[in-house]
Design brief:
The protein has 151 residues and is mainly beta. It is built from 2 helices and 11 strands.
Length: 151
């Protein structure tokens, strides 16, 4: 956990919020290498299995994280450059946060994206523009279900 604290205490902000064609987005202020922790996603924990919002992130066991800025503005991509993870260690981890890490090298100025991987019953058309876009914001494992219903 101490290594994570050191990685997230770099000088100056690591990200900035800016406008995108789809609304707001999160952009890198500096370069990141693969597996590097970009930041901590903090917010309010909602202990309600029926809770839903435009930005909420599933924590499991009927709980969701309503993230605070800047990471509440992470946009979807079918070929994301980041992923969200829950810190696992022998030390008890805070229950009100997640972490964002780079999946591949990220250059300064690049938009940070994640794969929302929604279930088929929540899928909506995708406009991410990725070369391998699935055309739906949906978990890759559930894409066939969406395609069956779209015909």
């Amino acid at each position: 956990m101490e290594v994570l604290r050191q990685q997230t205490r770099k000088r100056g902000p690591a990200v900035r919020i800016a406008d995108t064609p789809l609304g707001r987005g999160v952009f890198a202020v500096r370069r990141f290498r693969p597996q590097q922790v970009i930041g901590v996603i903090r917010g309010k924990v909602m202990d309600d299995p029926d809770y839903s919002s435009e930005y909420c992130m599933d924590l499991g066991e009927g709980r969701s994280l309503e993230p605070a800025a800047p990471f509440r503005y992470l946009n979807h991509s079918c070929q994301p450059n980041c992923e969200i993870f829950a810190w696992e260690s022998d030390e008890p981890a805070p229950q009100d946060r997640l972490w964002l890490q780079a999946l591949r090298p990220i250059e300064s100025g690049e938009e940070l994206t994640i794969d929302y991987a929604w279930p088929a019953d929540a899928a909506i058309p995708c406009a991410c523009g990725a070369q391998a876009c699935r055309n739906w914001i949906v978990s890759p494992e559930q894409l066939a279900l969406v395609m069956q219903n779209a015909v």
